[in-house]
Amino acid sequence: MQKKTVNGAPLPAYEQIKRHVLAKIESGAWKPGDVVPSETEMVKEFGVARMTVSRALRELMADGVLNRVRGSGTYVAPRQYESTVLQIRNIADEIAARGHRHAARVLALEPSNDPNAIAALELEAGPVFHSRIVHLEEGEPIQYEDRYVNPEVFPDYLAQDFTVETPNHYMVRLAPIQRAEFRIYAQKPEARVRQYLDMEIGEPCLLLLRRTWVGRHVATSVRLWHPSSRFHLAGTV
Q1: Whose CA is closest to 221, among 155, 127, 145?
Q2: For residue range 92-113, what is the model confidence (pLDDT) as tens digits?
Q3: Does a structural domain hold residue 237?
Q4: Would 152 be classed as within a structural domain?
């Protein structure tokens, strides 16, 4: 098996097998209801121990990607789980729906060893990925996004151009969100945020704290600051 890496560290063999299976499904090569190769066949194909293949398949079944039928085999699961995926709207789409132009100013795109971010992503160690972006509507800043991302879920995050595609759109396109946790506050922003959002001193913000899950993994932890005079939050689940 060809070794793949995340942040220079070898990707475990079971994780490589999981990504191989997911790639087959995403490409359409394996469709819902198709039988997947047996553990014996995968052991031969990847040159790994049976327990490694078993772990990969077991985790994919726990994530609802595969189903195992005793005495028959393992199958690509029907995509019914998509009806339970939370639809978290992309700010660029919201702006476009109002007939306005979206733009993004990328302030930072970097690895981070922030201990609070590592804990929020429920990882044992860093680095994790970090981005800071200001989103603008018709040239006026309306959102300051401070996001930490799990590199195990999105290993190519730092290679993206987020002036062309928002982080939200990029991540949902690759791996639909299956669970989310929200907290919303009204509070005064720190000076740096206030300056990037071109706010008056003392003006309050709406602050949204959100974590999202892909399968069993915390995919991202983000803080979204919005000037209360220029923004309101609304949505359905």
Answers
A1: 145
A2: 888 888 788 999 999 999 999 9
A3: no
A4: yes
Q: With a threshold of 0.70, does the pTM exceed it?
A: no
Domain that holds residue 148: 85-227
Alpha-carbon distance of 143 to 133, in angstroms, equals: 8
CA distance linking residue 168 with residue 208, whole number of Å: 14
Express each pLDDT in 131-185 by its tens digit: 999 999 888 898 999 999 999 999 999 999 999 999 999 998 888 787 888 888 8
Q: Are residues 62 and 142 in the same domain?
A: no
Does residue 144 lie within any of the structural domains?
yes
**Alpha-carbon distances of 71 from 54, 57, 64, rounded to whole Å:** 16, 16, 19
Query: 10 phi and psi, to 5 degrees?
Result: -60, 140
Q: Residue 5, SS3? A: strand
Q: Is 121 contained in some domain?
A: yes
Residue holding tokens 């401070």? Answer: 146
Of 49, 80, 111, the residue at which a domain comes to its end is: 80
Q: Tokens 């509507």 map to which residue?
A: 137
Here the CATH number for the domain that contains residue 218 is: 3.40.1410.10
Lateral strand order in the sheet of 179-187? 102-112, 128-137, 140-149, 217-227, 205-214, 179-187
Residues 120 and 152 in one domain: yes
